[in-house]
């Protein structure tokens, strides 16, 4: 999670919402990414989506069996769907997202009967630092 938090900090310095994601397999980093929606003009360029795409490319496969995703913010519905389709084994995330999250909030994607793959879920890892990064980022824009 330390690396995901560092990526979130880098995103904030680039005026992106500070979210970072890292995909590991067997303890080794396979791929990493930060949010890139503003710079790319692509609303699907969430950190999780970018990390999943990079991991698939790096591993040369269509699924991420045996991989873990570490992300600083509770994934949204789009990212939760991608996590399920990619068959990620474990999801570790930092700050909860009551407004846009889809794991423990909103649609609770992985609990739906139509969800065909459910990763093991470990919330709250690095939540304090992740939440502080987000709060600082949005406070600075409101002031």
Query: Element order, helices and strands?
Result: HEEHHEHEEH
Q: How far do the termini sit from each other?
A: 29 Å
In the predicted model, the low-confidence regions spanning at least 5 consecutive residues are none
**Total count of strands:** 5
Largest sheet: 5 strands, mixed
Strand order of the largest sheet: 2-1-3-4-5
What count of helical segments does DSSP give?
5
Beta-strand residue fraction: 15-25%
Radius of gyration: 14 Å
Helix content: 25-40%
Short description:
The protein is an alpha/beta fold. The protein contains five helices and five strands, in the order αββααβαββα.
Describe this structure in words.
- The chain is of the alpha/beta class.
- It is built from 5 helices and 5 strands; from the N terminus they run H-E-E-H-H-E-H-E-E-H.
- Helix 4 (77-86) links the parallel strand 3 (67-73) and strand 4.
- Helix 1 (2-13) runs parallel beside helix 5.
- The longest helix has 16 residues, at 127-142.
- The radius of gyration is 14 Å and the shape is globular.
- The model has no long low-confidence stretch (mean pLDDT 97).
Relevant terms:
single chain; about 140 residues; alpha/beta
Give the helices and strands, then pairings.
Blueprint: H1 2-13, E1 20-25, E2 28-34, H2 37-40, H3 47-59, E3 67-73, H4 77-86, E4 90-95, E5 120-123, H5 127-142
Parallel strand pairs: 3-4, 4-5
Antiparallel strand pairs: 1-2, 1-3
Helix pairs in contact: 1-5
């Amino acid at each position: 999670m330390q690396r995901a938090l560092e990526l979130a900090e880098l995103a904030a310095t680039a005026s992106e919402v500070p979210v970072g994601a890292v995909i590991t397999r067997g303890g080794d980093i396979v791929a990493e990414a930060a949010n890139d929606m503003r710079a790319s003009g692509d609303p699907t360029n969430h950190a999780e989506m970018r990390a999943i795409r990079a991991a698939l490319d790096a591993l040369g496969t269509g699924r991420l069996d045996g991989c873990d995703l570490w992300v600083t913010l509770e994934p949204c519905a789009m990212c939760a769907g991608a996590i399920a389709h990619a068959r990620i084994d474990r999801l570790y995330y930092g700050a909860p997202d009551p407004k846009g999250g889809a794991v423990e909030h909103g649609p609770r994607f992985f609990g739906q009967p139509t969800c065909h793959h459910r990763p093991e879920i470990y919330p709250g890892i690095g939540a304090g630092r992740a939440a502080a990064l987000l709060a600082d980022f949005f406070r600075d824009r409101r002031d």
